[in-house]
User: Which sequence fits this backbone?
C-alpha cells in the first residue's frame, strides 16, 4: 500500500514522502493516527503545491539574508567599553553587546547568531561572524574603543 506521510515517522520516512508500507500498518496505524493519507492524485498534487510554496519562501529568506549581509559588512560596528590605561577592558565585549549595537543601527539580530572566535578583552578592531541563514553568513567588523 502506498501512503503519503503527513508527519515524520520513525523508521518509515519523512513528511511529504510517498512510501510503500504493509496494508495493516497503513490502515490500522498510520492513517487513523493522522500520520499519513492514502497516496491519491489529489493528495499528491497538494504536497507538490506545498513543496513549491516552501521552496519559494526559502529562496526569499535566503535572498533577504544575503542583502542584510551585504549591508552589515559595509560599515564597522563601534562599541565603547570601559578600559584601563593599557587598553585592557574591564570585562569583555559579548555577543549581546554587539547585538545591542546592531539594534541601535536598525538591525534586529539575535545574539545567538553572533559568533566570536575569542573573547574581546583589548581595545582594537575584531571580526565576528553573523549567521543569518544556514547558507549565508556575514563577517562584521567590530571596533572596540575606550569609553
Assistant:
Amino acid at each position: 500500500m502506498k501512503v503519503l506521510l503527513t508527519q515524520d515517522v520513525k523508521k518509515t520516512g519523512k513528511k511529504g514522502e510517498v512510501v510503500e508500507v504493509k496494508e495493516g500498518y497503513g490502515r490500522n496505524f498510520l492513517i487513523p493516527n493522522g500520520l499519513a493519507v492514502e497516496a491519491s492524485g489529489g493528495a499528491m498534487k497538494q504536497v507538490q503545491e506545498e513543496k513549491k510554496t516552501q521552496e519559494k519562501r526559502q529562496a526569499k529568506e535566503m535572498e533577504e539574508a544575503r542583502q542584510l549581509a551585504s549591508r552589515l559588512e559595509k560599515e564597522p560596528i563601534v562599541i565603547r567599553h570601559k578600559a584601563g590605561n593599557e587598553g585592557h577592558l574591564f570585562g569583555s565585549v559579548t555577543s549581546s553587546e554587539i547585538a545591542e549595537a546592531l539594534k541601535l543601527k536598525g538591525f534586529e539580530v539575535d545574539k545567538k547568531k553572533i559568533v566570536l572566535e575569542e573573547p574581546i578583552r583589548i581595545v582594537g578592531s575584531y571580526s565576528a561572524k553573523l549567521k543569518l541563514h544556514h547558507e549565508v553568513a556575514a563577517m562584521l567588523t567590530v571596533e572596540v574603543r575606550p569609553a
Remarks:
- The chain has two domains: 2-61, 64-146.
- The longest strand covers residues 137-146.
- Residues 41-74 form the longest helix (34 residues).
